[in-house]
UniProtKB/TrEMBL annotation:
It comes from Hymenobacter roseosalivarius DSM 11622. This is Putative transposase. Coiled coil: none annotated. It comes from the Bacteria. Gene3D superfamilies: Ribonuclease H-like superfamily/Ribonuclease H (3.30.420.10). Pfam families: DDE_3 (PF13358). GO terms for molecular function: nucleic acid binding. Residues 4-114 form the Tc1-like transposase DDE domain. PANTHER family: TRANSPOSASE.
Length: 114
């Protein structure tokens, strides 16, 4: 079980705020709401029984270029031959050659069923 690593990512927006609020009867909620849309961030990492590892914070959404960089420079050094990397079916994860590149290093890439 210690050889399994589960990769996942999440998107963050620092400008998010609640669109609705509660106030005392007959009064309005008077909080500020940003009028401009801020930048998005992506947090990506791999979870194993040893904890969270190979964490990277990216500016913007995850794309194939940033995913390839993450796998080759951040994640790969933490994996050993015989490890299994479990990924979901995000289109970015199915980048051509990634599973083969991992297999050359002795790491099995396994996609979750849809």
């Amino acid at each position: 079980m210690a050889r399994f690593h589960f990769l996942d990512e999440t998107g963050l927006r620092l400008d998010y705020c609640r669109r609705y609020g509660r106030a005392v009867g007959g009064q309005r909620v008077g909080e500020a709401v940003p009028l401009t849309r801020g930048r998005s961030l992506t947090l990506i990492g791999a979870l194993s029984v040893n904890g969270l590892g190979a964490v990277q914070l990216l500016h913007g959404a995850l794309n194939q270029r940033s995913f390839a960089f993450y796998v080759t420079h951040c994640l790969a050094p933490t994996l050993r031959a015989g490890d299994v990397l479990v990924l979901d079916n995000l289109a970015v994860h199915k980048l051509d050659g990634v599973v083969e590149w991992l297999a050359e290093r002795g790491v099995e890439g396994l996609f979750l069923p849809p």
